[in-house]
Design goal:
Structural class: alpha/beta
Number of domains: 1
Helix content: 25-40%
Bound molecules: beta-D-ribofuranose
Strand content: 15-25%
Radius of gyration: 18 Å
CATH superfamily: Ribonucleoside hydrolase-like
Number of helices: 12
Length: 313
């Protein structure tokens, strides 16, 4: 079954690889458009990076829209220390030729959801949730029209990666995450608890490189750049590979395990801002708003990723 999707992203090497995986899976995804988000780096660079990735994959026909330049109620926190000054350091990719759309990304999301049969569009969120939350705030009627949200966001058992208690995408815009989590839209969350199982060991990166196509080689080069920070930080045999967990879950959910629980985000405490409190043991009566993925088959994940990247130019 092919899902119609709108992708929000702030690439970021892991998200670039997620997008390549999506583009290598046309039987699973009909990509309607991509909305650049401010996050890993400023919006001017994330939107350019999206266009670079689409051109790398030979898909300049997919429209790129500009999202909001900053989180809903806070200054932007970036992760340039992980992703490099361009946000996508590693391979040398040409300056993109394709143009960004002039319609604002939030308007695009609202109009597309309203113009398409209800329950047919999935939102694939690889980034902070700013644009989705702004769309839900501006047009609450779209909530009932979204088929599902599948997002890389949050952490509980693995705690935080940008603060001791918060995962980056949620920390950047906790108010946006709060709006999304309260929206009653079916949500699947791929948190650090699962992405930290998906380590990009040298053997797994070698397989991507050995594909020999430009997308496989660029993916390996990107991940070799961004892993440096994580290898030092965690001391593991590879870095976590976050973004591709989203398409991998959508293509082959049987590779993953999770459960339907309540997840609530902290928006007030200075110490734990952006923490996603997951009621894994169902201790409370809070609504079960999230299918929370906690574990997955790393070998199956990398096999799938390698297979899908092999299909690209
Ligand atoms: C998330 O933070 C970003 O730096 C990555 O691109 C990923 O989306 C992981 O916490």
């Amino acid at each position: 079954m092919t899902r119609k999707i709108i992708v929000t992203s702030d690439p970021g090497q892991d998200q670039a690889v997620a997008i390549l995986m999506i583009l290598g899976s046309p039987e699973a995804f009909d990509v309607l458009g991509m909305i650049a988000t401010a996050g890993n780096i400023g919006l001017d660079l994330t939107e350019k990076n999206l266009r670079k990735i689409l051109e790398l994959a030979g898909r300049p026909d997919i429209p790129v829209y500009l999202g909001a330049p900053r989180p809903m109620g806070r200054p932007l926190v970036t992760a340039a220390h992980v992703h490099g000054p361009s946000g996508l350091d590693g391979p040398s990719l040409p300056e993109p030729i394709m143009r960004t759309q002039t319609k604002p990304g939030v308007d695009y999301m609202v109009e597309t959801l309203r113009a398409t049969a209800s329950g047919t569009i999935s939102i694939v969120s690889l980034s902070p949730l700013t644009n989705l939350a702004l769309a839900l705030k501006a047009a609450p009627d779209i909530a009932g029209r979204i088929r599902e949200i599948v997002m890389m966001a949050g952490a509980y058992f693995e705690v935080g990666n940008i603060t001791p208690s918060a995962e980056f995408n949620v920390y950047v815009d906790p108010e946006a995450a709060d709006i999304v989590l309260r929206s009653a839209i079916p949500i699947t969350m791929l948190p650090l608890d699962v992405t930290h199982r998906m380590l990009s060991t040298p053997a797994r990166l070698d397989r991507l490189q050995a594909l020999g196509n430009r997308c496989g080689v660029a993916a390996a080069e990107m991940l070799r750049f961004s892993e440096t920070f994580d290898l030092k930080k965690y001391g593991w045999p590879g870095a976590p590979l976050h973004g591709p967990c989203v398409p991998a879950y959508m293509i082959r959910p049987e590779l993953f395990q999770g459960r339907l629980i309540n997840v609530t985000v902290e928006t007030a405490s200075e110490l734990t801002l952006g923490m996603t409190v997951a009621d894994w043991w169902r201790i409370t009566e809070r609504p079960r708003n999230v299918f929370y993925v906690r574990d997955g088959d790393a070998d199956g994940y990398y096999d799938l990723l390698t297979e899908r990247l092999a299909r690209l130019p």
